Amino acid sequence: MASCPPDASPESRLGCPFGKTHVPLDGEPNQKTWEVPRADLATLLDLSKRLDLDGEVTPIMAWVMVMSHPKVMELSAEDFRKLGVDLVRKVRCYGFGAVMEEFEVRDAMDNVLGASPRTERPNSPPPPSVLDLHRKQSSKMGDSLDYVKICESCPSGDGWGPAVTSETTLNGVPYAPFSKGDKLGRMADWTAEGKDRERGGRAQYNRNFRDQQVYGSSHAVTFNAPPAEDESTFSVVSNVRDSTKTRYGRGAVFTRGRGQRGGQAGGARGGRTQLQRTGAGGRQGYGGGYDRGGRSNTGARGRRFGWKDYDKPARNRDASINVKAEWKLLEEIDFNRLGKLNLDTDEGEDVDDYGFLYYYDRSYDKQPVKGAERKLTPIDRAAYNVTTSSDPVIQELADKDEATIFATDSILSMLMCATRSVYPWDIVISRQGNKVFLDKRDNAALDMVTVNENAIDAPLDAADGSKDTINQPTALAEEATYINHNFANQVVHESDSSKATMTHANPFYNSSEDTDPPASKAYKYRRFDLSTNEEEPVHLIVRTEVDAVQKNAISGDDQLVSIHALNEFDSKAQGSGGALDWRSKLVTQRGAVVATEMKNNSCKLARWTVQSILAKADFMKLGFVSRLNPRSNDKHVVLGVVGWKPRDFANQMNLSLSNGWGIVRTIVDMCLSSSNQEAKFVLVKDPNKSILRLYEVPAGSFDEDEEEVEEPRGEDE
């Protein structure tokens, strides 16, 4: 504390450095004060150092201590203000004036400026540098600045920063989209990784470990309008690469033909293996006959998914054909290269047509009443799936040099949709001079209708651990092929008086040999121009198929219809691909059901769409067929039928026909570049990779296989 001032007059001890004027106060003759003129900083400091203080400083001395600190120039404006407020609070007034405890001043300085060498109490006036230098520097700076140029360089607007655009304003006011339902997370959460720490193998999710919500993430849900019933504008673009499965035991479903190469056992005319049901028991594997297995009691409805699904081993599928040592590998093409190919072509022209068509039953377009769905009825009709080189019409057109390339719609669609395929398949390519024939082997994978081949978690084979026998890929493909064959026959009105007849009769039907009547089918032979220049014309003739015909509601003209069926086995079973329950969602959420099928069956739907476009069909009808009981694959019901224009459906699937034609032309050019004029090739899809391999094989390689396959048939007969 400061000591009391001495009784002696200040003038006897200090003198008056200001020119003293002694003025006694009224009523206090012993108390004296001094009237002094305005003093500068140096004079006040000189007066302060003459005081006899014990551990105390005056405010002016404290200020000098602050200004002489080496870190005072590093202070921000806010810190400087806080230091001033702190020092003012420490001032104490006594009879002789205002003083401050020196240790409190130093503590306040240390709190703001940090520890520094101890600053001694100033004993002399500070050099004029503290105030005078600042004054001089300011004057020099002012002399060197041109304020007119500074003002001219400033922006002309009222503010600064990026320009305001109409996209970020609403009626001239800055605006950002928001939602009342937004959940805002923490600005900085240093413990966010805590929920990812493994504790017993599972991540922790509770109220203390919540995922951070993104601003605006929930506004679509909050302000979403309820979905309308009309989904006519529904459109989905699928970017998922899809695929097809190969070997399926029901391969000989449509093998009736005429003039099959290699000869048919027993002199049969391209016989047909019948779709037959057997009792409860298995199904034959890859043989010619098809026995629909009965109800299986060993299958499970499904399993739990989610945890450690990422750690599952990769599936190793078997190749569709065994590559032999004498085969010569000519080319290996990955799907990325195939996806970049492009060739624009015309819509094609009709060369000839065969067969007849029944009229489509429009009652199937109406949504059935729940519980009164129509059952799928087996109908025995003669259907044919003859390969290209065995088709008598194509052989006749080839002899007339009508085209360079010959194929069927089933084979051509598989090649055009190759980049969507996952399951293995193969195509036999025969070159005869300057002509190329795209063929398939007997009981090939191309004849089968796959199920959920493009699903993320596709159906498991028995080798992969699946115990649900009726939901394995082979059984599902047999079931889907059976459904498509019977569905197309069921949804037409069979009437001899009311049918559309083509120019020629069915080229494969022989009434003396076939006991079943022919199915409603029209074979259209169409030609496409695949030329890249006028000097080297390249044309392709393809045999396309149409299933029915319907009257236009306005003009009354006949419209061609292709008919296919999607089948549901069990929405809760493994391999369902997250499909919705069709019985409850097909009416209310038809768009979601179709979108899921586009994802899980991209290759199959793409092939059907390409076949409809190649045939120049006006409509493509898709039936939705489900099991009557999920645990039994021998009884089905029709839940509904939806129709699309093929090109509109192709746009929804992001299906590029130009890319497909580019793939066809590229493969054909590879075969024509061979020096061998009579060569045979095999195009093989790798079973486990997105790769196509082209092999050159010896002549007659597959004739031996055909004879081996047909010998058991003769014994069975």
Characteristics:
20% strand, 11-stranded mixed sheet, single chain, alpha+beta, 717 residues, 5-stranded mixed sheet
Task: Describe, in short, the structure shown.
By secondary structure, the protein is of the alpha+beta class. 25% of the residues lie in helices and 20% in strands.
Topology:
Layout: H1 10-13, E1 22-25, E2 28-34, H2 41-49, E3 56-57, H3 59-67, H4 77-89, E4 92-94, E5 97-101, H5 102-113, H6 129-144, H7 147-153, E6 169-170, E7 173-174, H8 219-222, E8 275-277, E9 290-292, E10 328-334, H9 335-338, E11 349-360, E12 374-375, H10 392-399, E13 405-408, H11 409-416, E14 426-432, E15 435-439, H12 473-490, E16 492-493, E17 499-501, E18 521-529, E19 539-546, E20 548-551, E21 558-568, H13 582-585, H14 590-600, H15 602-614, E22 619-629, E23 632-644, H16 646-652, H17 657-672, E24 680-685, E25 691-697, H18 701-716
Parallel strand pairs: 8-9, 13-15, 13-19, 21-22
Antiparallel strand pairs: 1-2, 3-5, 4-5, 6-7, 10-25, 11-16, 11-17, 11-18, 12-23, 14-15, 14-24, 18-19, 20-21, 22-23, 24-25
